[in-house]
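Our collaborator T.R. sent over the components below with a one-line note: 'Predict the complex.' Nothing else. No constraints on interfaces, no templates requested, no preferences about which chain binds where. So this is a plain run: every listed entity goes in together, and whatever single assembly comes back becomes the starting point for the next discussion.
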Amino acid sequence: MTEEVAASFDYQIEKDDFKIAGSASSHIKKILKQLGLPNPLIRRASIIAYELEINLVIHTLGGSMRLEVHPDRVVILTEDIGPGIEDVDQAMTEGYSTANDTAREMGFGAGMGLPNIRRCSDEFSIRSTLGEGTWIRSEIHVG
Amino acid sequence: MKVSEMLAGAELNQVAGESGNGNGIKGAYIGDLLSLVMSRALEGNLWITIQAHENIVAVASLVEVSAIVVCEGIHVEPGTVAKANELDIPIFESKASAFELAKTMIGLGIQ
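Returned assembly:
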């Protein structure tokens, strides 16, 4: 597997910043379109990026998101500064959510985020340490 | 069917995104949970929802829905209007329920 990175882009995502939430995902989608990647891949990447971005806004103290476009794969990574997930298996369960009432009223917090990300990924990994933060890597194969 | 043609047959109040009225409508999706909309709504769908905050524009743009109808008489927030105008996403307000709107849209030929 080549380690050549065709392009990479970094985004900082702020805690509770619902107003601009989605703008990093929109930028990612725009880049993938400009690179001429197939529409089904762009749709999966858009869902992954949006769910990751919203998770950073709702559930973390803030963090970063990175898009890497390789010749054979698209990788989206996030890393946050806490608070970490107590039970990752539970967090991966469809319908389970720790989102607050405000987020739920806005239509977030359905407990679909992480399951959606995993479903749209060809490879998915998550590491979390309570009190430290969470690291997520999602990869989609090209072609 | 274009958004402008749909508008002619339904009682809707356009609040944003008139430059997107040439978008073609293919089917509709009704939903308020954004994760579900992200994963289930299809490109070209008319999206009927009660959500009116700014983030619906990001979802609409990512999914590439043709237009958003905010139902049940809920008013769209100014920030949502500004963002939708920027991204050319038509947004309409309606006093009708999602069910009533679905009936209207089916009557207009949106399947």
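Summary for T.R.: The longest strand of chain B covers residues 13-16.
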